[in-house]
Design brief:
four-stranded antiparallel beta sheet
Length: about 300
């Protein structure tokens, strides 16, 4: 199947500086929001404490719940509306399930609620999960870098790893902007995104290697551009079909995989973008830098 007609020639390499500027803006904006939110970025898995999810019969203003919690010295708790508006998530930094439930039952006798779930994580487990999560990402980047270096060359590995870091930073920033917490399912989404993105990049790299043999007299930048255009139809089809499946998971998959599907939706788009505008153009820039360095 050819989604994009043969002979299409879009100057992706010529637009790399514009793409770089867009990427930097998105990364900086996301990181600013991420650091501004601080510990609110992390779910109970990575921040510790207690998460309590309640669903009321009628919607309750968040500020009313906060006033109730202030009376038991938990006014600094994070409170988020969930689902259709009648459900709330209350996150505190201690084991407070019993006292919170008793206080809310006392203050809202005419608006009963369903206690849907409680999650508790201690400080030691929190630190261990954070370290393990970070190491999982680092080892994934390292392993992919080694693999691409062996299959292609170091410059290809550099482009691939930088593109993957780009994807994670943008996706993490969008999660922060959207107010979504980093939990274990979200971490799983990041790792899945790394696998998806590198697969798309490898396809482009394979075509570049083939075209380097077939187009020896052409400029290196022209070869890269041609290779991206030749794989564009495959890239578009893969992205579209995968995105349809992930959107279906996001809409109908239920609460358990909602955040996971959200990360993949954003990641599929950023991964496709980085394969075209980050991974391959970086090879061109690396070669230019080496030529200048060698004189």
């Amino acid at each position: 199947m050819r989604f994009i007609k043969e002979g299409t020639h879009i100057d992706f390499i010529g637009k790399r500086k514009l793409a770089l500027a867009l990427s930097l803006i998105l990364i900086i904006l996301g990181l600013v929001v991420f650091f501004k939110r601080g510990e609110e970025n992390f779910g109970v898995d990575f921040s510790g404490g207690t998460l309590i999810q309640l669903e009321f019969t009628r919607q309750v203003p968040i500020e009313d719940i906060r006033l109730s919690l202030k009376e038991i010295e938990l006014g600094q708790s994070t409170i988020q509306r969930f689902g259709e508006g009648k459900a709330l998530i209350i996150r505190t930094q201690a084991d407070t399930e019993k006292i919170v439930l008793e206080k809310i039952r006392q203050d809202y006798p005419d608006n009963p609620f369903i206690h849907q779930r409680t999650e508790m994580v201690g400080p030691a487990v929190r630190e261990d999960l954070r370290k393990r999560g970070l190491w999982a990402l680092i080892l994934a980047f390292l392993g992919i870098g080694i693999y691409v270096s062996m299959r292609f060359q170091f410059e290809y590995a550099l482009g691939a790893v930088v593109a993957l870091i780009h994807d994670i930073l943008i996706t993490m920033g969008i999660c922060a902007i959207a107010g979504r917490e980093i939990t274990l399912p979200v971490l799983a989404g990041f790792l899945t995104l790394i696998g998806y993105s590198i697969n798309d990049t490898i396809v482009v790299y394979d075509r570049i290697r083939e075209d380097l043999r077939l187009m020896r007299k052409e400029n290196f930048g022209t070869i890269i551009n041609t290779s991206i255009n030749q794989t564009l139809s495959r890239t578009a089809l893969t992205t579209l079909t995968t995105l349809i499946a992930v959107v279906a998971l996001f809409v109908w998959g239920g609460e358990v995989i909602h955040d996971f599907a959200f990360v993949l939706m954003i990641g599929i788009i950023t991964g496709t973008y980085s394969s075209i505008f980050v991974a391959s153009p970086l090879i061109v820039e690396w070669r230019r830098w080496r030529r200048k360095k060698s004189g």
